[in-house]
Amino acid sequence: MSAQTLYLSILASSMALTESPDPAALASVEFVTEYAFDSNVVAKVMAVDQKTFTTAADPLDNLVFKISFNDKIDGSTITELKGRLYTGGGVEALEERHADNFSYVTGKLDFHGALDSQYDFFESVTTSYSASKAEAIKTALETMGALNELGAYRTKQVELAVPASTVTDLTPTELKNSLLDMRDRPRYLVTCDVASLPHIEALAEVMGKINCHVLIDIGNITDWQSAVALTETLSINDHRLWVFWNPNKSRPSNATTVLARKKWRPCVGDYLAQLLLRNAATNAAGIPPIYRPIAGYDFPVSFRDIEKVGGLSLDEEAQNALASAGVNVVINERFEGGDRWIYGDALTQYDSKTSALRLINSSEIETYTANVVIGIAKKHLLKGMSSYIKDATSECERFLDSCVVDDSGKGLLVQSSELGGRYYALSITPRADDPFSKVDIKFSRRPQGCARQVFLETTVTK
After folding, report:
1. Signed CA dihedral, 59, 61, 62, 66: sign only
2. pLDDT tens, position by position, 71-80
3. Within 13 Å of residue 84, how many CA atoms lie on the same side as its CB?
4. Is the pTM for the entire model greater than 0.90?
5. How remote is the C-alpha of 448 from its chain's centroid?
6. How far apart are CA 209 and CA 176, in angstroms?
7. Strand locations in 96-212, DSSP E?
8. 5: which residues sit within 8 A by CB, 6+ positions away?
9. Any alpha helices (H) in 115-223, and if so which ranges?
10. Which of the 8 DSSP states describes residue 380?
């Protein structure tokens, strides 16, 4: 979406937050942001008189404004700004006229966004008022109940509705380019929208270019035949694509009362949250436990009071069909200590009966180890050829040695019979056709699998 501009206008007896400037404003604050607001956001504005010395050129420098944008449903703060008004011109004018007084510049609201940080909520903030109207502005703030004395026990503020943003969906090309241009490479791309196949194809193209994973929630589908049919129409035979289906309704995970309505909810957000928490539990070598898929008994779905959608039966035929299509379903499973709602499988969209890459944890191990080796290879580029081969080989081997399975079964790589009992095989050598500037890297390994099925043979003896 394009940038949105909001204008906070201080009028003679009121305050307004609009999408266009008000010519009758005594003072104004212009906000430019790339973020979008829905209709459930409010802005809270207050000013505190610091009783400090001011000059005739800037008579409101003693008023410190605090402007917070809040979710009006749960009261949480989205972002907050604190600073003083300036007579106009924005941060450029401040820097030009007060280059030797940095504390004065940083004390203004205009300084927000001035450092061009990628984490700035507002791209720019520009304040403006006329010095001749300073007393009128103070009177207006006091009249509307927004002006506070320094150290006041009870603070006064004005609450304003924030105009909802007009959001235009990105085209597939814009989506692809925005993801590829990110400075931090994403490891997971998540979508709950399967209505636009071109957008999914754009995500798949990004997945192929940066070697990450795409997680798709196929939505509120009430029968397994449709879930299978929809998944098969995707036709993306790639182990980095995972599909999820939640055929249940529930209350949210943070519900504290039965008044929270039961309804269908996409499960991929809960899955991603558990995925990131698992990844954060790295070992001493910094290796995340991605050998453990988010599925089964140890990773129950966090929604409350889950119940199956009426009329749905996931019998053996349904479960086999869903598994064949590579759909990971939220199901209720009975265990010795009681039942749990779990992710009932750990399958990718890779079409194979025996390959490890049809399993989510093996897929993650493949992409993770490949990306780290690629990162090491890039890190040592533009060194002397002999130094490059020695340094890159040494660092790759240290990393891969820390990935092998230990005696407790924890680790990413297991012994391979095809590799002669080794966990991995790595060679970094000069390329035959251009040994002066090109290098060949050959990397083989066997990732951990995932126990999906157990065959029990039981015998009674005397």
Report:
1. positive
2. 988 889 999 9
3. 20
4. no
5. 27
6. 10
7. 122-129, 147-149, 158-161, 188-191
8. 19, 30, 31, 32
9. 134-144, 172-180, 197-210
10. T
